[in-house]
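Field reference: sequence -> structure
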Amino acid sequence: MATIVTGEGGNAVKGVIFNIQTFSTEDGPGLRTTAFFKGCPLRCAWCHNPEGLSPKPQLIWHAARCIGCGECLLSCPNSALTRRPEGVVIDRRKCRACGTCAGVCPAAALEVVGRVISADWLAAELARDVEFYRSSGGGVTFSGGECLAQPEFYLATAGLLRAAGIHVALDTSGFAPSPVFDRAVEACDLVLFDLKLIDPDRHRRATGVDNRLILENARRLAASGRPFWVRFPVIPGYTDDDENVRAVSEFISREMPGAERVDFLAYNNLCESDYQRLDMPYPLAGRGLLSRADMDRVLAVAREAGLDPVPGGALAVDASGGGRPPSAADDRKLNGGTLQ
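Structure field:
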């Protein structure tokens, strides 16, 4: 059992996370626990964690669980809930995600996604599986959202874990001021760095932000001496064309030659229901998965540019049964309220 030493009075730094996923095998070496931070400055059209976009806790309604008792409507202090033929409707202008309605719902149909917690609580929770980390060469990964949108919370929690001898990985878009990025890299053992698009106009249209800072931080990471992996999301209609695949691959080969691993991760569409529960439009609604032929083409272009990418993600199942489904993991959801 790892001992988390927080110092006198504990660590007062607090942040917001929306999930803890245990027994993860996709977010770094060995068996890992991944903590998902809430809040992200990017708005990628294909984002598969829409719960991580807003920095604040949010209320969601699970239609399949609801028994129609109406207790939630009576309990809401802000009159933010109404019942319509399609079910319970949340007025997000009024809802404060206080959790009152979720607390009285006998079917757990209402849920607050996101929780304010302290760094010492999170570090202790993540350290629970230390024996699995040590036996597998694993550890803890911080993901999101974007961890660097809550830099002090990340730094405090990562520091506690590393002091206890636990391997820490940072999964980041690289979109953060360079001084913040440099401190974040120093605070971990491995960086998982996402690269999406090289052309700045295309990047801005697809993600909502310019990529100059991201590319500069990619170069800074490569020069830092810290071990790193690069992750490239292969998104049909956005990142999978030969021009972009070639540009990304050449950038990695030229600017980030020390990458220990390069993952090409195929788009999956399992998140569409999450958008619906958050009353958000899903930009890729109805978009199919990549075929194996498409993924093979993308990999071939990358190899021509000097990379040896590792394929992952979800592929459409063809007539022969080919394709790779996403892996399942045990989630330890964190919902509702504030834990000191």
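Note: Residues 242-255 form the longest helix (14 residues).
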